[in-house]
Amino acid sequence: MMAAWFTGLAALLLLTIAAALWRIWRGPTAADRMMAAQLIGSGGVAVTLLLAAAGQPAARDVGLVLALLAAFAAVGFVKAASHRGAGDPEADDASDARAGRAEGRAHD
Amino acid sequence: MIDTGFDVILAAMILGVAAGAVLTRGMFAAVVMFIVYGLLVALAWLRLGAVDVGLAEAAIGAGLTGVLLLGALGRVNRQLGEDGTPPDAPHRPAAIRPVALLAALATAAALAWGFLMLPPPDGLHAPVAQNLAATQLGNPVTAVLLNFRAWDTLLETIILLAALVGVWSLAPDAAWGGRPGLAQRTRSGGVLSSFGRLLPPVGLLVGVWLVWAGADRPGGAFQGATVLAAVWLLASMAGLSDAPRVASLWLRAALIAGPAVFLALALAGLSVAGFLIVPPGAAKLVTVTVEALLTLSLTVMLGLLVLGPPERAA
Amino acid sequence: MIDAASLLLSVAGLIFFLAGTVGILRFPDTHSRLHALTKADNLGLGLIALAVALQAESWAAIAKIVLIWALVLLAAGTSAQLVARVALQQGGAPGSGRDDAGPDAVGSTPSGQRDPAG
Fold first, then answer.
1. In which region does residue A98 sit, left (phi positive, over 0), alpha (psi from -120 to 50) or beta (all else)?
2. Interface ipTM above 0.85
3. Do A35 and C71 touch (CB under 8 A)?
4. Which of B26, B32, B183 sits opposite A37 (nearest CB)?
5. Per-residue pLDDT tens for B67-95?
6. Angstroms from C24 CA to nearest CA on chain B
7. Which of A21, A51, B264, C22 is an S-S bond match for A59, by CB 3.0 to 4.6 Å?
8. B67 and B183 inside one domain
């Protein structure tokens, strides 16, 4: 009974993930798309936990790898989005976003 | 019924994301779609009972490839001019699109034909299960990769090494022997550098565990090495450890340790029974040795492949 | 009894995931959409983790579930912080209710991509 319940729940979770795909398609900013991917990542981990509970314990290992690398794409994104491709958004504007933006423009 | 429902939803989503990645106009959206595609395909492998492949897909598809593509996209955009065209855009003849379409269709047709020509799928389950005991391993996938079909694994490792040499050959003369990638800059004590400090110990543990557990349950050298490479890249992106010089002897030694020992043991087998044949009693020892060194080499190879050619002078 | 608790917790988890998805679809600007990511779905994952931990076969499995949840929490917090910084630099002040950053400004220089938000 519980196995069927968890599988059904995982299916419903997949559907909520599918809705978040719309945000990746639509954007409009890169940050929106990245955040939607992050949400889908958390949902994917939840699906592996539910599948593990539904009788496939090895699913948890896949969930562990997904959880470990969950922020990996986001870190790659902020690196790629930074001024010269190797920065840190926090170092680029340590105090104030607007000042940082002005400074960023001054560099060019 | 519920299981079928889950699988149908998952399959539909995979097709939808794949179509989205191809059809969307923005390159960034396509990359993000591809990252999600990796995640969903990992779930699909899980549903098919191929947990080893699921682990590899989770680490490579949802992990390494995403960073590789995002980095590549950042580079492309920095090189583009204001109007979005590269400064030295090659002139593309108008006929290239139909030709590319035909080539893609021909490849798809060839693959479909090959698939339909396959003998009825009774699978290799039975023969693998019969001979599993001789390998002293519990995980049939590891047994196939490192014993029954060790030949394939050896060649794959050497292909990765060749790919890395190919990437390195793109280095400008001035940077040859130097460090790959850009010098990373982070705010010390910031979120990024703290994250880069927190995660690697856990990642190291998970990576080594995947290799060790791979003998008897899903996991193995490729999966573990991908996780370790990702963690190494994270520490590098957080500015904690700069990439090594590619001329470093230690680096070169780490790169060839796995393939070299694999090859040496394969040749040693020649004196006992034949090339790549392991005496049954020593199977587990040999396999674990090869896996440990392969993990080291694959970690360094995958990490360096993502980092790219040397860009900073030695 | 334990089964009932699992049922209840997992349904609650699903509802939080649903709320997160609604948020990421319906909130008006990038920074408010970050809330969906940082709060709702992590609570949802926590509840689902609790629900499956009640059914787990061993303490080792429970430890792994807890580790997975902690890792996702860490990842979500970190990436939300970093992505929010990028969104801030590329325009679109929090609460402005509009998407005024240039689309997909990965790696293009700040001056090249768009006019600064007024």
1. alpha
2. no
3. no
4. B32
5. 889 888 888 877 775 555 555 556 667 78
6. 16
7. A51
8. no
